[in-house]
Specification:
By secondary structure, this protein is mainly alpha-helical. Helix content is 54%, strand content 12%. It is built from 4 helices and 3 strands. It has a 3-stranded antiparallel β-sheet with strand order 1-3-2. Helix 1 runs antiparallel to helix 2 (37-56).
Length: 162
């Protein structure tokens, strides 16, 4: 006789822990810059410490993130636009070096202007986190604050028109 959801918790936790460990180890190796025994050992240690942190602390938090394919859509859009926006920022920086560009602006907008700022349902916390990351991933702007109580999002951008 199975105990329902509790019996599956250990299996899911182990699978999730392994996936997190592999992701952390691979991420470390991508950013290490070289492949060597020392970097491999450092990746193993860092991934193990990160997974232990997730296992001991991260799973006890009050916010649970549930992802689905639609939740991750803003990240893919942001990554596709990253090369184009990087070239635009490069042009802005060249103009700034020549003395022809300003330093950017801060804008406060309604949260209803951003689909990621007001999600609902079981995936709302994950959708809000992914949307915030995607909005800040662009090289020419980032989110300063998301005030859900007042329904505003404050962003900083290099371009005055954005």
């Amino acid at each position: 006789m199975r105990a329902g959801p509790i019996s599956g918790l250990r299996r899911r936790s182990g699978r999730d822990g392994l996936a997190i460990w592999v992701a952390l180890a691979l991420t470390y190796m991508v950013f290490a810059g070289s492949v060597s025994v020392n970097e491999g050992l450092a990746a193993l240690v860092c991934a193990s410490l990160g997974t232990l942190w997730w296992w001991g602390v991260g799973r006890r938090g009050g916010v649970r993130f549930r992802f689905n394919r639609g939740t991750l859509r803003p990240i893919w859009r942001a990554l596709r636009g990253l090369p184009r926006e990087t070239v635009q920022v490069g042009g802005q920086l060249v103009r700034a070096l020549r003395g022809g560009a300003g330093g950017g602006t801060t804008r406060e907008r309604s949260a209803s202007d951003f689909a990621w700022a007001t999600p609902d349902g079981a995936t709302a916390p994950a959708a809000r986190a992914v949307g915030l990351l995607a909005a800040s991933l662009a090289p020419d702007s980032y989110v300063l604050t998301l005030d859900r109580d007042h329904g505003t999002v404050v962003t900083h951008g290099l371009e005055e028109a954005r």
